[in-house]
Amino acid sequence: MSKKVLVLAEAREGALRNVSYEAIAAGKQISNGGEVVSVLLGDSVQGLTAELGKYGADRVITVEHPHLKQYTSDGYGQALLAVIEQENPQAIVFGHTALGKDISPKIASKLQIGLVSDVTAIEGEGDAAVYIRPIYSGKAFEKVKVKDGIEFVTIRPNNIAPFAKDDSKSADVSSLSVDITNLRTIIKEVVRKSSEGVDLSEAKVVIAGGRGVKSEEGFAPLKELADVLGGAVGASRGACDADYCDYSLQIGQTGKVVTPDLYIAAGISGAIQHLAGMSNSKIIVAINKDPEANIFKVADYGIVGDLFEVIPMLTEEFKQLKVNA
């Protein structure tokens, strides 16, 4: 049976996040030929709607309001519930991002439905859809099938491939007026840490450093390699605790969960808490002076050596490959 699927699109600093397109692809699979409706919230988002159609959305609904300029669970909750009431979907898909993880339990509670969170793969289509998600810090996977009510899932970024962009496709765009009132939280100012390069949670390549980098300056070679590969820099909890870098770079059970195509772990021992945040990466390369380091147990390729010798060598080799490509 075909289904109408409602998909939340996320925008950051005037641009759509890649997980928005991945959610559309997941929605298409769940819909089994039904309609996929993308929802875009903000204070001025009309200029972003065309891209959603090119990646497979059948319709796009925008909700614009000054109180939606910055995310708050109250404001987004009111807007999303209004859209859900209007559309009456059979399934809902959000990204398992900071925003999605915060708002999805609120919506599920209001609707009195279940929530399948952190989905990394979907088997089957329509009523036969089975959702696969990691449990026990990634040590095992469970398969979940929703038997009754609205299917509500959040998908982990970088796991479900988006459709190729098709400039010939377009989506019908409409707007919904929602009166956002009684906000308990008002965002008056946003002070951002200076960040450069690719978003860590959506990066296809991640170069992560641990205590082995020895200092804040020790991250410089990793950043250079990340720039060459078009990737992002991450860190272990140990490196963050040692003040080598900001906690925004932390990968692990109490940090970000990443699933890039390539994960290079430099000077990281491989504590179980760190593995929980990166063990599902497609290719893992470990660089460590200790041949008994736990990180080698999950690595596809291991290099026993000093990261300050190995990383610059890799950087130069990749530079040459790009020149000769």
TrEMBL record:
This protein's species is Psychrobacillus lasiicapitis
Task: Look up the record and name the cofactor or cofactors this protein needs.
Answer: FAD
Q: Which InterPro entries match?
A: DHS-like_NAD/FAD-binding_dom (IPR029035), ETF_a/b_N (IPR014730), ETF_a/FixB (IPR001308), ETF_alpha_N (IPR033947), ETF_asu_C (IPR014731), ETF_asu_C_CS (IPR018206), Rossmann-like_a/b/a_fold (IPR014729)
Domain (Electron transfer flavoprotein alpha/beta-subunit N-terminal): give its ranges: 5-195
User: Can you tell me which family this protein belongs to?
Assistant: Belongs to the ETF alpha-subunit/FixB family.
Source domain of life is Bacteria
Database matches in Pfam families: ETF, ETF_alpha
Q: Which SUPFAM superfamilies did the record assign?
A: Adenine nucleotide alpha hydrolases-like, DHS-like NAD/FAD-binding domain
Designated name of the protein: Electron transfer flavoprotein subunit alpha/FixB family protein
The record's comment on cofactor binding reads: Binds 1 FAD per dimer.
Q: Which GO terms describe its molecular function?
A: electron transfer activity; flavin adenine dinucleotide binding
Annotated positions binding FAD: 211, 236-237, 250-254, 267-274, 288
Indicate yes or no for the key word Endoplasmic reticulum: no
Q: Which UniProt keywords apply?
A: Electron transport, FAD, Flavoprotein, Transport
GO BP terms in the entry: fatty acid beta-oxidation using acyl-CoA dehydrogenase
